[in-house]
Amino acid sequence: MKKIQYITSCLLVLLTVTSCQDFLEEENESFAVAEEFYLTEEGYQSLINANYSQLREIYGNEPWIYVCGTDLFAEGRDAEPTGLSRYTDLNPSSTGIAALYDNAYKAIQTANTAVYYADLTEATDALDQQLGEVRYLRANAYFLLVQTYGGVPLVTDYFREPVLEFSRESAENVYSFIISELEAALSQVSTGAYQGKVTQRAVNHLLAKVYLTRGYESFGTSADFTTAASYAEAAIAGQGLTLSFEELWAPGNPSYPINEETLFSVQYDPASVSTDPFNLGHQQTAYFGPYQGGSEVAGDAPYRTYTLCPTQFAIDLFTEDDARYQATFMTEVYARYFDFYDVDDTSSLAVNHYYAPAWEATQADQDAYMAAHPEATYHEYGTYVPSANPTNDYQTIPLKKFDDPGAPFGQNTSRRDIILSRLGETYLIAAEAYLQAGQPATGLTFINEVRERAGVDAVALAAFDIDYILDERGRELMGEYHRWFDLKRTGKLVERASAYHYLVQESNFDGANGALKILRPIPQSALDLNQNNDFEQNPAYQ
Amino acid sequence: MSQTYYDYAGSVSNGFVSTQIANAQLQWERTREFNVGVDFGLWRDRITGSVDIYDRLSDDLLFTQDLPSETGFSNINANVASVNNRGVELALTTRNIQTEDVTWTTSFTFTKNTNELRSIYGQSEVDDIGNNLFIGESLDAIYNYKFTGIWQADEVAEAAGYGMQEGQEKLLDVNNDGQYTPDADRIILGSSNPDWTGSFFSSLRVKNFDLSTSVIVTQGVLVYSNFHSNFADTRDRGRQKLDIDWYVPANDAGLPARASNTYPQPRNEGSFWRNNGVGYYKDASFVKVQNIALGYNLGSESLEKLGLNALRVYANVLNPFVFTDYEGYDPEWAGASLNTGRPSSVTYQLGFNLKF
Question: pTM score, two decimals?
Answer without folding.
Answer: 0.88
